[in-house]
Amino acid sequence: MASSLTCAGIVWAFLSFLCAAASCVGFFMPYWLLGSQLEKSVSFGTFRRCSYPVRDESRQMTVMVEQCGRYASFQAIPSAEWRICTVVTGLGCGLLLLVALTALMGCCVSELISRTVGRVAGGIQFLGGKWSCGEGMGMSR
Q: Where are the membrane-spanning stretches (predicted)?
């Protein structure tokens, strides 16, 4: 199999894939914020949460559900800002994964990635990195 990438391009392809995989795993894990509530350890991410309070109407009290799960719907995510973060971070991770998989295919297929395609892919990867870190579209930490 011939490659259309130089040695630097091959290293870029593999590092891109590792970074995209790490970003996607971080996006899907519910451990962005850690804390405690009702004397239980709680954590949540953009669309998953672990150990969350629920109102038990039969006993007229709040109880902790000690399991991890997604929000019931997109509207159940606590705030509009958190929903925007979910969408932007998901898009960023998707862009990173798209560029990384294209670069890996460039390692195996000749003439797939030209100088122009590499530059465009780098620009897309830059945007994906900015968005997956939450700094795109005017959001900063």
A: 87-109
Spatial separation of the C-alpha atoms in residues 66 and 41, rounded to whole Å: 9
Closest CA to 21 of 87, 97, 89, 102: 97
- Please tell me the distance from the alpha carbon of residue 97 to that of residue 23, in angstroms, as a whole number: 9
6 membership: H or E segment, kind and range: none
Q: Which residue has the higher pLDDT, 110 or 42?
A: 42
Tell the burial category of 7 from Cβ atoms under 10 Å away from its Cβ (0-12, 13-18, 19+).
exposed
Confidence of residue 18 (pLDDT cuts 50, 70, 90): very high
Sheet holding 61-70, edge to edge: 33-37, 40-44, 48-56, 61-70
